[in-house]
Amino acid sequence: FFYRQGSIVHHGQLNTETKLISDTKSLGVAQAIAPRISGSYFVLKEEGQSPSPIPFYHRPSYETSSLFLVDDEGNDHLLASEARLHDIDTCKAQSLLAAVYNDGDGSMMLALYQVANFSHSDPSQVSLGKSSFPIPIQSFDEVGAPRFSPDCKRLYFSRRVGNDHDLMVYHIETKLLDTVAGQDAFELYPSP
Q1: Band (185; pLDDT cuts 50, 70, 90)
Q2: How far apart are CA 68 and CA 45, in angstroms?
Q3: In whole angstroms, what is the distance from residue 14 CA to residue 158 CA?
Q4: Nearest alpha carbon to residue 87 among 149, 145, 9
Q5: Alpha carbon distance 150, 159 (integer Å)
Q6: Is the pLDDT of residue 41 over 70?
Q7: pLDDT per residue over 118-166, tens digit each?
Q8: Average pLDDT, the chain
Q9: Residue 122 phi/psi, 5° resolution?
């Protein structure tokens, strides 16, 4: 399985009896990981280089992470170059990928992508559809940490509303948006 330590993504074998990880190897810097099928993950990372000496938040207008499919052996397949995505989650049952999308103009918006051949064993057969933006977009929108419910009927995320960061839920089937937790105090980027 894949796991993160800071910004470094590792792959290892988990022994469920001893709870120990063995055969670990570092796959490099990655911004986000989301499950696809057994032994394969969606990974946001930089293309073709080891970590840049300049952190990504100091150079967002010059480059963004690309979206890859990565297998248990560390082999990767480029799915979307310079994807402008900052956090991802997946819903295998509906072949969806949810992401925070940077529009390049100051907004971080919630985006949904239909993934063609989501569960195909050959990564070259998987493709990302056109983005859709399921919630009304606000000026200088700031969405974070999209997470699907286990049944994929709801998508939870945080969103800046005024000076607050609230927890919201988007209902996939009804396309309704609700506030789960909203307070009159400034919260520092809550995650669902």
Answers
A1: low
A2: 7
A3: 31
A4: 145
A5: 21
A6: yes
A7: 999 898 999 999 888 988 877 777 888 899 999 999 999 888 766 677 7
A8: 80
A9: -95, 110
* SS3 call for 44: strand
DSSP 62: T
What average pLDDT does this structure show over 17-33? 79
Half-sphere exposure in the Cβ direction for 3 (13 Å, CA): 10
Q: Averaging pLDDT over each range in 24-33, 68-77, 132-141, 169-178, which range is the top one?
A: 169-178
Report in angstroms the alpha-carbon separations of 157 from 23, 89, 149: 34, 11, 11
Residue in this structure with the two tokens 């948006």, named with its chain if needed = 177
DSSP 3-state of 138: coil
pTM to 2 decimal places: 0.77
Contact status, residue 115 vs residue 80, Cβ threshold 8 Å: no
Q: How many helices (H) does the chain have, and how many strands (E)?
A: 0, 15
Q: Which residue has the tokens 């789960």?
A: 180
Nearest in space to 118 (alpha carbons), one of 142, 137, 90: 90
How far is Cα 76 from Cα 67, in angstroms, rounded to an integer? Answer: 10
Q: Tell me which residue has tokens 């979307």.
A: 80
